[in-house]
Each structure stands twice: as structure tokens, then as C-alpha cells.
Specification:
The protein is of the alpha/beta class and 305 residues long. Helices cover 44% and strands 21% of the residues. The chain contains twelve helices and eleven strands. Helix 2 crosses helix 4, helix 2 (11-23) packs across helix 5 and helix 3 packs across helix 4 (37-51). GO terms for molecular function: DNA binding.
């Protein structure tokens, strides 16, 4: 530990280097940090002396990073970002109660956020910082504690805890159904079908479950379920949508089942995902316990209908 401390440059030197590397100018870095150009130059020279490596090439009052400086700048920038994030977490929640969570956009807005007041009431010491992620990512390169993921439990380098399966149902606008009578799955084959890119195989799987093989359905693709649902409401076609994400549209009658044939893929589900070393992070422990309870209650309500 003593050797490691001796190897650590000062934060002021690292900040001066990062600013100069990012802006390509000692003068601009000095203005950004409210220092003199001479102070920036001395900080960087001291850092180069400590590293025993030149970080900049100085030529005609211009500076450019050396190869060593370029690679060092990337890591220093990431380290300073992490220190800044840790400082913000302590400032905003002195008890260390910050959970940095990645969520799927429609799941977050339609299912999770409406339930959050109950979590906040039970856990006022926890502050959740949300970010949106559509695809799995490497926790080692992201400043995040956990994620809510849909798919198979195959997230490399992370623990996946199954929350609940997703039930999908072919839905459309009442006016669309009136204009296109649908009595059986085969009737859908010739109709415009609406797709969501994150579930590109959904219609194919649904048709296969109804005994209709190798049919994917022609129609528009949308990036998010909320847009797919709106397209169905406007009468553009039939959408295969997760019922848990369109409860308001079903209750209001904006969407109705084209057929009462729900489908669940047992190999794909919602999961709470986190690195193993974050398993005992107090905010994550509190959120996990609450989330499992909410998912269990949601499943119980559906099974009782």
C-alpha cells in the first residue's frame, strides 16, 4: 500500500493533464481550471517527471500527446470520472444510499417508475440514478450497480436473477378489428403486423406456438414498445405486445385483443443483473428485495384473473 501511494500522482496534476489532453492546449486547460498557464505547465512537468515519461510533444507553442500520453489520458479521464461520481454519491446520500440502475426504456416508464413511490416510502435513504440501456453491456466499463434485462440469463460476468416472464398478446385498435375480422391465427398471416426490434422473433415464435411454422409477418418495425403500441392504436396493424406494458391502453379500450391467445417464451424473462461484487451493496439489497416482491405480486394478480 505504501508503494502504491508513492505511485499515485496528485489529483491537481491529473486534472491539469486531463484538461490539457482533452483540449489540446495548456492555455485552454488553464482557463477551464481557473489557473495560470504556467501552473498547468508546472503540474504536467511534475507529472512527467514522476512517470519518467513525456506525455506531450511541445513544438512552436503547440502541444500534442505522445502515444504514452494518449493511452494514459483515457485511463486518467475514466478514473477522474469515477472519483467525481463517488463524490457526488456521498454528497447526495451521505449514508451511501445510491443505486445506479440501467433499465429498459418502456419497462422503466410503464412498469417500474409508477411503482417507485412505494419503494421510496419504504427506503427513503436510497436514491436511484437511472440510465437507459437497450442491450447488455460490460459492467467493468460502466459506472453502474445493476440492470434490468429481458432475455436469457446469459449476461457474461454478472449474476442474473429471474424476476418474471413476459406474456404477449396480439393487440389492435377496435376500428382495425372491425374492418378486419380475425377468427383464428391464420387470419393474421395476410394482415400488417407491427414489430418491435428488441423482440424481432416474437411474431415467428407466436405463430409457431399456434402451429403455423416459419411465418414472421410483414409490417413495420419500431424501436420501442411505446411506439409500437401507438402505431397499433392508430390502426396501422396488429402488434404483439407485452400485456404488463400496455395496461392503460387495455383498460381504456384503445387496444383490444385480436385473439385471446397469449404466449410466453419460457427461455426469456426479465432479470435483475449485477456484478457479483455488488451483491451486498445496501441500496441494491433493498431494491432487490422490494423488486422481487413487486414481481411476485404482479404474477399473483395475473394468475388469479
Amino acid at each position: 500500500m505504501g508503494l502504491q501511494r508513492r505511485l499515485l500522482p496528485s489529483i491537481s496534476a491529473l486534472s491539469a493533464f486531463e484538461a490539457a489532453a482533452r483540449t489540446g492546449s495548456f492555455t485552454t486547460a488553464a482557463q477551464e481550471l481557473a489557473l495560470t498557464q504556467g501552473a498547468i505547465s508546472r503540474q504536467i512537468k511534475a507529472l512527467e517527471d514522476q512517470l519518467r515519461t513525456p506525455l506531450f510533444v511541445r513544438r512552436d507553442q503547440r502541444v500534442t500527446l505522445t502515444p504514452a500520453g494518449e493511452s494514459y489520458a483515457v485511463e486518467v479521464r475514466e478514473a477522474l470520472h469515477r472519483i467525481g461520481s463517488a463524490t457526488l454519491r456521498v454528497m447526495t446520500a451521505p449514508q451511501g444510499g445510491v443505486l445506479k440502475l440501467a433499465v429498459l426504456p418502456t419497462f422503466g416508464t410503464r412498469w417500474l417508475v409508477p411503482r417507485l413511490p412505494a419503494f421510496q416510502k419504504a427506503n427513503p435513504q436510497v436514491i436511484i440514478h437511472f440510465t437507459t440501456k437497450m442491450e447488455p453491456f460490460d459492467f467493468r466499463s460502466e459506472d453502474l450497480d445493476a440492470a434490468i434485462h429481458f432475455g436469457a440469463a446469459d449476461w457474461p460476468g454478472a449474476v442474473c436473477e429471474r424476476l418474471m416472464e413476459e406474456e404477449v398478446l396480439p393487440l389492435c385498435a377496435p376500428s382495425f378489428l372491425a374492418a378486419h375480422p380475425i377468427r383464428e391465427p391464420a387470419d393474421l398471416v395476410a394482415l400488417p403486423l407491427l414489430h418491435t426490434t428488441s423482440r424481432s422473433e416474437a411474431w415467428k415464435d407466436w405463430f409457431a406456438a399456434q402451429g403455423i411454422e416459419r411465418h414472421e409477418g410483414a409490417g413495420m418495425f419500431f424501436e420501442q414498445f411505446s411506439t409500437t403500441a401507438q402505431a397499433a392504436i392508430t390502426g396501422l396493424g396488429v402488434a404483439l405486445l407485452p400485456t404488463l406494458l400496455v395496461q392503460a391502453e387495455l383498460q381504456d379500450g384503445d387496444l383490444i385483443p385480436a385473439l385471446q391467445l397469449p404466449y410466453r417464451n419460457p427461455d426469456r424473462a426479465y432479470h435483475l443483473v449485477h456484478p457479483a461484487h455488488r451483491a451486498h451493496h445496501p441500496p441494491l439489497v433493498a431494491f432487490r428485495e422490494w423488486l422481487l416482491g413487486e414481481c411476485s405480486a404482479d404474477i399473483t394478480v395475473k394468475s388469479s384473473r
